[in-house]
Amino acid sequence: MLKEGYVRIPSGCAISGIIDRTGRLFSGQSIADSIATMHDRSNGLGGGFAAYGIYPDFKDYFAFHMFYDDLIAKQETENILKANYIVALEEKIPTRKTAHIKNAPLIYRYFAIPRPEKLKLSELDENEFTIKFVFNINSNIPGAYVFSSGKNMGVFKAVGYPEDVANFYKLESYKGYMWLAHGRFPTNTPGWWGGAHPFNLLNISVVHNGELSSYDTNRKYLEEFGYICTLQTDTEVAAYIFDLLLRRHGLPIELACKVVASPLWKQVERMSPKEKILYTNLKIIYGRALLNGPFSMIIAYEDGFVAINDRIKLRPLTAAKKGDMIYVASEESAVRQVCKNPESVWIPRGGEPVIAELIRDNEKEMYSTKEVTA
Amino acid sequence: MSLSYLTPEFKVLRDYDKCINCKVCMRQCSFEVHSYDEHLDKMISNDMNCVNCQRCVVLCPTQALTIIKHPQTFKEHANWTYDAIRDIYRQAETGGVLLSSMGNDRPYPIYWDKMVINASQVTNPSIDPLREPMELRVYIGRKLDKIEVDENLNVKTKMPPQLKLETPIMFSAMSYGSISYNAHAALARAAEELGILYNTGEGGLHEDFRKYGKNTIVQVASGRFGVDREYLNTAAAIEIKIGQGAKPGIGGHLPGEKVSEDISATRMIPPGSDAISPAPHHDIYSIEDLAQLIYSLKEATDYQKPVGVKIAAVNNVAAIASGIARAGADYIAIDGFRGGTGAAPKRIRDNVGIPIEFAIAAVDARLRSEGIRHTVSLVAAGSIRNSADIVKAIALGADAVYIATAALIALGCHMCQKCHTGKCNWGIATQDPNLVKRLNPEIGYKRLVNLVQAWSHEIKEMLGGMGINDIESLKGNRLMLRGIGMTQKELDILGILAAGE
Ligand code: SF4
Ligand code: SF4
To answer: Per CATH, the architecture of B138-498 is what?
Structure first.
């Protein structure tokens, strides 16, 4: 059977996300408990987590998490890595033997910063430089895969049920301010670890439940901007679109959400003249970045996360709030498992994002105006 | 002149039990097939002249008429076919270039029919367009790389001019001259009603139709007929016509006898003079010359209107299209080798150019690989026969399609391929006032509206089936297509997988 990347595999899924908007760190146990509640939404063929704020000691270093099939892949990757980066620390990612996680590849992490002379020569900023590095390893070194490349954050994923993945990676020993989780139900899969979620690039991580009917349109649009979609997964495409919109085009998160789940033309028609101009422009310019088909997804970036549905809400998504904690999940049970008495629980409408960011001085209003009470 | 070796191509069968000698057929047939024999007291026919346009068949009040392919055959020969032999007779008689009209009628493979469309099952719910929103609107024009907004969300970038289409279909260029006033009236009005555009072709814009300006694309072709400042500024967009799928590399010729007072005024040439469109534009011998014309037209219209370029699909279409995009065109219309025409040399029509399916796939892929696909719109033309062809064209990479032959068929064209004779019995490809009035624009426009609406409904159904609710998400979505009965090479060029893969 072909490895993911050579074949497209539709999946159903469970997703969950938790953030403490004050930036307080909390252990990965909560997210593991939350996603475990939705055991039946996945089938043991993929689970994973993204954790933000877990590497404060190395917060200025890119934290590369790698899967290697063998030592040759490791060697080749390290040659390229060390030629381009100063590596402050390299180590095996600590794991624990568990009954349900089998066939683990070699799993390493590196904290690294680009070599100044290489960076200068490339005429790129360090993010672009790192993206190029990641694309290079993932498309050119057989058996090597960079599955996490952000700063002060990391992705942990495997083939297995999410609760087993959490146990395998000793998730309870990490402390972060924001966590995402994913349990996967692929319709068929060769069981490749890289194909599990979250999908990450730099500081953007995506967990996703759904199937993009617009996949090929989105992929081709991204390729024009230099993105290489090696995995053929919807999640990869979604992550790159957010990277393009947020980082490269500098759009505020609210607008990025209005690109991937754009208002309908008949809604635009009813808007104020100023909004009409904005949304008409947005739809015309970014028509091919619209994510079409059923999905609920959580996209985490440095400042927080956004949870969003396709514009006609064909997949489940529930949100809840308690104090400075924001919870989102496929099912309400996953929230209530870890937050006994939420102040409010609501079901966001199709295309209406739930944006939960760290509290800052110039704080944005949390977007929950069009909620439906759960 | 010596004896003609040609025998009739069609045979008129008249059921004399039904014929009531009403002479309707006689009055309707501009090819003078039917006549009344007083001695016999019955209608007789001259099969030799019949082109099988079926006008008489449809209008005969007693359904007494049937036209069949003439049973007369040659000794069978796989190489020297009926057409091959007859074409030689014709040319030996006249010494002339064979003329024909409408599109290439040879049995080349039709790649639309070798592609099938995807639908959702289980993992992805299909969408019912009658219950859920389904968006077909597209904008044709140059798109920006990105939007820029200030902190109050005011848009700082300036959008280049766009054409808004409520459905991704436009009526392709057909000049006043090649088709009738009434045909133009029907097309213009239908375009307005449908929120789409029609294209004047290269014959100028009749005064009466200036009021449809918002729904009009005007052409600037090598003859420059009817082009003045008002013409350009009346229209919603300007299209530079370089070539046409039915006759790539060939100019046009409207004989003087068709240049009536009205056509002379519209084309801005003296009545009765031949209207010649040279093969190339004599001010465009290279891509930089094209860029100059594009920008001259933009200057003339104050950068308020998209300027597109129409080319025929030829071998090197991908590179040419890339050059056109870089020369500043807002859209590129590509006309495949099955595209129609009012008159073309038969050998050119049947042998020059490539199928639109390949051309669109190749151009889209080239522009993407150069990272400029999103800066220009692509319009596919050259035999779009139904809504499924449109879905496939867009999935291959088009932003919208042009239809022309299909529109004429909606108006009553019976594909007799005799447009060049000017005797169109259906009032479409003629300037004869008695024939023109057979086409009622009031009815014609409604038929066009019906056709496009029916196709739009079908497109929505197919999109819904794929789990898509916006036509934007179909653009270049080649994963939605699968090929049947193609070679690997053909699949690769189309950029699609085989069915079952
Ligand atoms: S040319 Fe047309 S109208 Fe005349 S006889 Fe033939 S089918 Fe009838
Ligand atoms: S437009 Fe008229 S002449 Fe031309 S093919 Fe159609 S029916 Fe025949």
So the answer is: Alpha-Beta Barrel (3.20)
